[in-house]
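Need residues for this backbone.
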């Protein structure tokens, strides 16, 4: 059974555009690991504590996630975009379809 993830992202103040640019770049690496982006959405009408972005990602297995996270090209993007300066928090939830 494929691994499905719901990824929630919170930005540092004033860095929403930078988060979008980073995610635009880093998500292009998913297919290299057999993954695919099912959806990517901005949270509208945000309230205190709500994330900026919600992503649904599918990967073939847990090892593919580990490989994606350890990908040297991803590490280069993390450094280039200074990920820690733009993304305040990430939450990754393992999910499955209901029913």
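Answer:
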């Amino acid at each position: 059974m494929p691994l499905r993830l719901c990824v929630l992202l919170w930005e540092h103040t004033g860095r929403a555009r930078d988060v979008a640019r980073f995610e635009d770049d880093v998500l292009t690496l998913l297919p290299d690991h057999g993954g695919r982006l099912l959806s990517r959405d901005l949270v509208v009408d945000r309230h205190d504590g709500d994330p900026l972005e919600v992503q649904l990602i599918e990967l073939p297995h847990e090892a593919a996630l580990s490989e994606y996270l350890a990908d040297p090209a991803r590490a280069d993007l993390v450094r280039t975009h200074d990920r820690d300066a733009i993304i305040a928090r990430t939450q990754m939830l393992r999910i499955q379809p209901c029913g």
